[in-house]
Structure formats: structure tokens, C-alpha cells
Amino acid sequence: MNLSAAAVGQILWVLGVIAWYVIRYPFERRAKRVRIVTNRRSFVDMVGLVAATLGLAVVPGIYVATGFPEAADYPARMWAIAIGAVSFFSAMWLFRRTHKELGKNWSISLEIRDKHQLVSGGPYALVRHPMYTSFLLMALGQAFLLSNWVVALAGFVGFALLFFLRVDKEERMMLDSFGGSYRDYMDRTKRLIPYIY
């Protein structure tokens, strides 16, 4: 059987999304057992999460399942699929590392947990928000793996809404919780892309 480049891209995207869920699930279960001491969830926070879910899972999932919107397709190329695979699976590696580094401090939302510690090792030594970096890499991978302009745009828009709606609030919460330690950490790290931004 000779698979087309588009089919290979779709298979790799599905495998990547499965990997995302397999990585996230045990941390989600564990997080429910740790008491929340500060909760800054809001409607805007939820909008960001919904946007990311739509852009990085629902819209591409519909495309993979149905081919809709076919009119926005562009030709799939194996070189693009290779770039997409490296980007998406780099995102999964980083996603796993961030979860491991955060451990019991991890939360899907804007929360401080009981005995929360400032994490500044592993990928957090280079950027303050490496989990968002992994979502950016997912969006990039999605654009190369699924050769459709709507799907490519959906991934980047979903990521951007999540990031820009939450990052300032997240940093304010960390400053309120850790004060000068977090300010020093901000001074020596970038937000999203090492050495750049």
C-alpha cells in the first residue's frame, strides 16, 4: 500500500494528538488530589482554553475525519510532512518535559496549588512558559502535517488566543505568589522563545 503525503500527515497528526492526551491524562488525575489555594480562573481564561481546543483539536479533527473544508487544501509534500512531524513530536517532547518538571504544581488553569514551588529548571530555565512553546510547535506542526489553510490558521489562532489571553494574568498570579523570586526569574528568562521573546 502506497500512502499519499496527505494521508501520512493525517496519520502523524492523529498519533500526535493521542500522544498529547496520553501525556496529559495522568497529570490531570494527580492534580485533582492536590488542594488549590489560589484560583484565578475566569471567563477570559476559559475562552482561551476553548479557542486552543478548537484550533488544535476540533477543527483539525473535523478535517481529518471529513476532509472539510476541502476548498482550502494545498498540495501535501513529503518534505513538509517531515518538518511537521519533527515540529509536532518536538512539541510532545517539550509538553512531557514541562509536565514532569511541574509535577504537583501543574494545573490546566490559573491556579496555585498547596505547597506550590517556583519551577525554574529543565525547559523553565530557558523560557517562563514552555508549555505554551509546545502549543506553538503543535500549531506549526499541524500547518505542515495537514495541508489545509483553514486548519493551519485555526492552529495558530487557537494558540495565540490562549497565550495572549492568559500569559499576563499568569505572570501577575506568579508575582503575587512568589514576589521578588519570580521577578528575578522574569529578568533572566524569555516568555516563549529562548533568547528571543
UniProtKB/TrEMBL annotation:
KW Transmembrane (keyword) present: yes
Alphabetized PANTHER family for the sequence: BLL3993 PROTEIN
GO MF annotation terms: protein C-terminal S-isoprenylcysteine carboxyl O-methyltransferase activity
Protein name per UniProt: Protein-S-isoprenylcysteine O-methyltransferase
Name of the top EC class for this enzyme: transferase
Matching InterPro entries: ICMT_MeTrfase, Isoprenylcys_mtase, Metal_cation-efflux_comp
EC numbers for this chain: 2.1.1.100
Membrane topology: Multi-pass membrane protein
Key words of the record: Membrane, Methyltransferase, Transferase, Transmembrane, Transmembrane helix
Main location: membrane
Cell compartment(s), UniProt: Membrane
Transmembrane regions: 6-23, 43-64, 76-95, 146-165
Top-level division of the source organism's lineage: Bacteria
GO annotation terms (biological process): methylation
